[in-house]
């Protein structure tokens, strides 16, 4: 998968949910990705350079990893 | 059914709770107060002669044939303009009336060609019938006097002729254009004997006039004055079949009027609840593609896309395809396979395609063209209301006091509903238009928007948040409704967010370019003007914040209490005929039919038990993800039914790269479309005239599609999918689409009460149809939201990443035109192209002048993604800095220019915002020439002359 595209998508989700406050947003981003992304996309995002992820997206990805 | 004209009760139905009883020709009858005597007589089985009356037009009282006698009333009143009264005693046939009617009829006939035997309306002519009805036996005035018999025929319209010599000046056509269509293109020109129907100005003919060819005048004409060319050529129909249009999401029902296997004409069905007897130029006339020479009717295969196609038998095509699919699955795994369902195909066909992908391929890689149009609607309305669908029926607009239209152009894209909307606006409802373009509804005959907010493309959320700011800070919210129906705490959070000064119209004016005072006035009108109804289209959804905009719309409706009753609501105007249905049927990769998530074990278990196979519990790939994964090598095979992603999806280069990377592309379609240039298997499709099934329109209305002729390829589309499934070893045995709908019903709670038998009985049903709503649900959320409490969602305005700059200073937005449909595969193969034979670029006079451009000049349209060329149309319909085009023609390929940016929640492409530059050009670009050459190469069929695209 094109990692740049996935990073852009994850950051875009994070920016659109950020107004809910960081804690809620992190959970919401993780839930959104889990609900709508194919597993290979999540796997590729995990393998991406996390530096390019914005903080909420990065935290959401960590949470996704934690929850399997 | 055999051929019978549709019943005509003479004047419109009146809805009144007060009943009046009268006596007509000795028979008592009770009708609603306000009903005309003419209609009452018709409802009691009588038939008063008439020529100027029709039950879809207001009574006119002109022809003087419908005279009656009423006890105690002087004279002989016209029954069409005389309302019933309690105890009234009416006589419709007396010697006096007979004498009067004959006299009137003599005058009509004295100026009418007596060529009945060779007239195209012979035996289907109201004038002929009425002459017989009144007992006309001779004409005392002779035929030698001045007449109109020598007037020439206007054949300029491709679908119907106007023969003024046969006109009886009843004005039905003029009134139909005024009252039904709302275009007001026709007029009665001249006075007295010189009276004649005129389209547009005196120098115009029908083609050059404002006429939109909806056919309402043709349908209204009682003679052969306005008649379909097809009837002239073929003759009077001999049978009629009720079916549903396969163009836009309005879902008009038509009588397909046939002679043998030949379709003579499509006539809008008066009992159709979506269209109420009206039609547009596409559904009424543009069905010739079904017999176009480009249609492919034999299956074809090839090993690689640089080879010519080879026609093969169905058995060979299906066996080859199944073998290839199974091999790819064995080598790369189930998740390397996927499919795309079609919003042009029936519910039953889309259900089978997604079932084939989930149960046969073994993945959830199924998506549909709603991905690129209304997927944000599904997401946004599910989040806020709990249901992925609009809230109203179309009739509801007649109870609206304020109509808020955002990102939609109904007169072009949903013309039959637009006519209903215009009727309501002529009655006095107020209109707010939020659109970068000055669409026709901003100002057209007898319609003028109270407010037009010409926002900068990409700022929908900012505008709606500013409107919310006004409603909250000026205390215009419906607090009682919110407390009762919504989550109050969430509302308070949302209200605090929108009330922030940074969301005021004044603060956002620099972003939205909407004058703050105009925006405030519009917000006040929506909140306080009575029933407020929001209608929206792809100008809302096809943005990087499409889902946020849908939720912002829902927020506004909840905040003002405009939900849960007639005249209000949130109404997505769906693009294609069965977008709603395709979504309902489980075409998205994350959910099964009825919008239930694939990860839900209980739902999955239901399907697994029914289908006898384990399902993948994880979401699959969406269309853009499939293309990415194809380039990456993890997605290898795609089955595309009735969809042309190469032309319709954004960033054509990327789509082509994805398709080219796949091992197997199976296109199932009527024509060798653009996607087929990259296909290895072509399975010929069937038109909506050749199949049984159901479509679900924008108001959740499920309607029957009935086969009127046998499929040219030998199989309806559901049969092709079943044959492919069985070639893969799935063992399906549906004998009729009704059995597929039975399966949908037993697996989908919102469809539990749906069956073909129920649809036959009811005519149509709006889901949910279940134990709680056995007759369906015209209005949603009447007693509470489906999700429980209405959910206010904070929608922060996030500017798109697509930015203008020195190299690309203009914003391109795309849309549709009345005469063409989507990628044009159907309408380009009809006479509709006479109105629109190429895509053009609308550009503001200031921007054109800066570039030295005039209307008709070739221009190069370039973005960061690609470039194309097309001709310019200089117009102030677009604002400075904004350009606009359509995407109906593959020779233009507007999507070469659009980008990969998409909605954050659904990946719906951001078609509506692309930064571009426009410059003079000498003609088609190198890319266009190369593409044309490649397409011609790809469409070769062994043993045939070159196939047309």
TrEMBL record, chain B:
The 4Fe-4S His(Cys)3-ligated-type domain, residue ranges: 96-135
Domain 2Fe-2S ferredoxin-type: 18-96
Span of domain 4Fe-4S ferredoxin-type: 158-189, 202-231
Database matches in SUPFAM superfamilies: 2Fe-2S ferredoxin-like, 4Fe-4S ferredoxins, ADC-like, Formate dehydrogenase/DMSO reductase, domains 1-3
Record domain 4Fe-4S Mo/W bis-MGD-type: where: 238-294
Chain segments carrying region Disordered: 919-949
Family stated for the protein in its record: In the C-terminal section; belongs to the prokaryotic molybdopterin-containing oxidoreductase family.
Protein name: Formate dehydrogenase subunit alpha
Organism: Sphingobium fluviale
